[in-house]
Amino acid sequence: MAGGWMTAVRIGLVGAGGVAQRHAQVLSGLPEVQLAAVTDVDPAAAEKLASAYGARALPDVTAVLSEGVDAVYVCVPPFAHGPAEREVIAAGVPLFVEKPIALDRDIAVALAADIAERKILTAVGHHWRYLAIVDKARELLADREVRLVTGAWLDKVPPVGWWPHRDRSGGPVVEQAAHVLDLARHLAGEVTQVSAMGSGIPPAVEGADIDGSTVATLRFAGGAVGTLAATCVLGWKERAGLEIYADGLALSVTEDGLTIRTKDGVTTVDSDPASARVAVDAAFVAAVRSGDRSGIRVPYAEALRTHTLALAVASAAATGRTVDV
Length: 325
Ligand SMILES: NC(=O)c1ccc[n+]([C@@H]2O[C@H](COP(=O)([O-])OP(=O)(O)OC[C@H]3O[C@@H](n4cnc5c(N)ncnc54)[C@H](O)[C@@H]3O)[C@@H](O)[C@H]2O)c1
What we know:
This protein is α/β, with parallel strands linked by helices and 325 residues long. It has helices at residues 18-28, 43-52, 61-66, 83-90, 106-118, 132-141, 166-169, 172-175, 178-188, 273-290, 300-319; strands spanning 9-14, 33-39, 56-57, 71-74, 95-97, 122-124, 146-154, 191-198, 213-220, 225-231, 239-246, 249-254, 257-262, 265-270, 323-324.
């Protein structure tokens, strides 16, 4: 074994779909990490993922915990959050949860309280915060007031059956644009008030009941105002990113790069999206191994603040009312 002083960190996965497959691939590429067990309500999905990584496919979360895993990843769709997390927390085991952390707020608030009480080590999959260009953007903004924020997530309907259903996914703002809202909070501070409008026209996908397009306006505690535009009517991912404007500075951030404009000119910094997808797992595993949580950029309580903001936008769009966050 490389680095023989290290014992392998043994991971259990709950949910074996697209994002679980990504985590399995990343985790198996980290030193001294072992995918130990996988469970899914679809046993064939669990079996397929487990066998690809020499892990055990097990019937439920209880069985995964019985394997003595060091940490559990919960990679279920938005509507399915709650029961798995409760079991992991009760067992005192470190917990990685994919975003969005729930469909509504009550489950997430209750889980956050349990996590705080049991002092559980947590992380949430807001991997954009691990991009080096996001650190750079924060540095550039450190001594300036943000005045305007414009965010967008312009994409397709992802090819998973639950996605175009509001009561399964929470809708595009909660499910997808949450990455942009999280970045907006990280770079421009807390949002205090939102209003929003949904198109009322679903994307052209069988059974869809979500807004195909949503716009929102945001008021930030620091004095900035902002917008968010989301659509899922394209057949491809057009763009997902955030622009930030401060006195004499314009920044544009996507997973692929950062553009910095001042009166003196333009600088672009390229970024590798895969780096952040590795870093989010590496940071969690390092924390599980050492007990030092300082490398985790979005623990559960922080993700709850982003989720609360996304839910406020969804609620404002649904009701037409301005919502205090
Ligand atoms: N951070 C990211 O970049 C990123 C990327 C993709 C997906 N995600 C998030 O991950 C979540 C899952 O997305 P996905 O693309 O993997 O979906 P998916 O539909 O491909 O996979 C979900 C899996 O969970 C299983 N499942 C459902 N309920 C379950 C339960 N109660 N217990 C165990 N397994 C259960 C399903 O059978 C399915 O295999 C979504 O919330 C999505 O937003 C995050």
